[in-house]
Amino acid sequence: MASALHAERLRFVYGDRVAVDGVSFAIAPGEVLGLLGPNGAGKSTTIKLLIGLLRPQAGSIEILGMAMPQQRTAIQSRIGVVFEEKNLYPTLSGRENLAFFARLFGLHDVDLDHLLERVGLATRGRDRVSDYSKGMRQRLTVARALLNRPDVLFLDEPTDGLDPVSARSIRTLIREEADRGVAVLLTTHDMYEADELSDRVAFIDEGRILALEAPEQLKLRHGQRAIRVRYREDHEVKEATVPLDEAAGDQLQALLGREYLLTIHTEEATLEDVFVELAGRRLE
Amino acid sequence: MNLARSWSILRKDLRIGPRSPVVLWALIVPVVLTVLIRGVFGDLFADQPSLGIADEGSSTIVAAADHLDGVDVRVLPTAEDVEVEVADGRLDAGLVLPAGFDDAVRAGERPPLGLWLSGESLPVDRSVLTVAVLDLVRQVAGDEVRASVEIVEVGEAGLPIDLRLLPLLVLYAVAIPGGMVPASSLVEEKEHGTLQAVLTSPASVGDVLLAKGTFGVLLGMIAGLVTLTLNDAFGVAPLAVVLAVALGAVMMAELGLMLGAWSRDTNTLFAAWKAVGIVIFLPAVFFLWPDLPTWPAYLMPAYYFLQPAYAVGVEGAGLADVAVELAIGFGICLLLLPPVIAVGRWLQVRLAAGRLPAGEDAQPEPSTTTG
Question: B349: part of which helix (H) or strand (E)?
Fold first, then answer.
């Protein structure tokens, strides 16, 4: 399948600090690619390069068959962006914010009520954004990104700092858009979110992509499966972890033979574990 | 550049404007200052020219003067009283009718008629009063004016302080809403990150600058014209005054756009505005103290809209009298356009290079080694 977005060897330097260094990836229509990395890893800069806010110093970008930044305006009319910061006009209502951006896109027949309903703001659309909670503002920025029914969505930390309910509703929307065929680039430092939403995950650190695969594949390839057993011995609760390798059978047999076995859990590698193994440090 | 998108941004700014403290401050302060200055120094509630008359005989002119429209007439007992009142600036003009004046006029003589003019009276008021007096004499004589009018200027020469402060007021009224408002609006968009959101839509930096500039021109014109209206300073050529204010608003908006595009944040903008403000406001000094040599004012762009507005609105000049200054002002507006476009391009380049980022998102990412 032809990719909706193709980035090739992107490079961007702030002063003498390399923010993005030879980043390459592609996203197919309907695919969610999670860009996972710690703060300052180059995630936001990569998004800014892709949406035309920054001009790459090297490399090429092709979105929906068009070159960025050469065909910036045409591309921007077909993409949606959710920024990490809640960059809305606080003295305008939620509805007025959406109406303004709809006009910038040259759209005059957008069903704003439906859009507000989709993000759970149907009853608050006429309230000023300054009266919105952080979660409501973030949901409004998602609604803004969906105004033009984009073919490619860029989401920069869309659930950062949100309450679980707001985060859940935004994840649901992202999934719905991907199911509609939208290519989604999602940056996050939340490994659970990346695991849940992403068809593929790219680990980025110090401006470089360390690995790019489906989450399951990454975990299988880089993680370690194990069984964790808790048992009582000499009036104390003890714990043992048995890696599921060739020698696991005997150790497990010995543990299961104990009289006071309390719990047995399988333990899979997490994306965090994979990142630690690849980057040598934790995500946060 | 796309006019429809600029119009959308302008509509948004117009909607936000009344809720913005900066806009309200910019529009209200000139009005408040006008009321204060005219209340303290001027004649806030007496905008008609005043004429004092001393009748040494029994002229019919006194009764006729009482019915004059647009002139505040006071009858005084003696010629000395008239002179004192005019010299002290309490009257714009004084007329002394000698005994037997009417008879002499009717007999075909040309009797002398003393018309005292206050040195502080407005030229436009002097014209009105001179014509009114001649008309009164004509009513006595028939068609031809049979009097030899001797005009004597008494009292301190020069305009009253409230009128000399008018250029400063007009300059403030045009410069702050016209220049400062678009500049701060642009900086605010950078600081709040909304500029990034706008530039991620099909809108360009050019669309944004056009909208902000138009916003500034509209506000500058409104504030400038309201200030002039409150000061009753449209003279005999209102079109010339409107033209001068429009040029001033364009000039200030261009300056505001350059400062706004260049400034990284509000603090930088205010520092820059203070520095540039000296050049902007300096011409007002030469109107406040007219004895100063005026040539330095010719070097200041603002002079070329302030002088025409003042000459027409206060000194009674016509459009032709200020055509040269207006033409130079227009030329300055044109000359400022390329720098505005250049600064717009510079802003685009800076944004694309991540050098002029806005808000938290704008900071270059932290060192990748610290996570």
Answer: helix B323-352
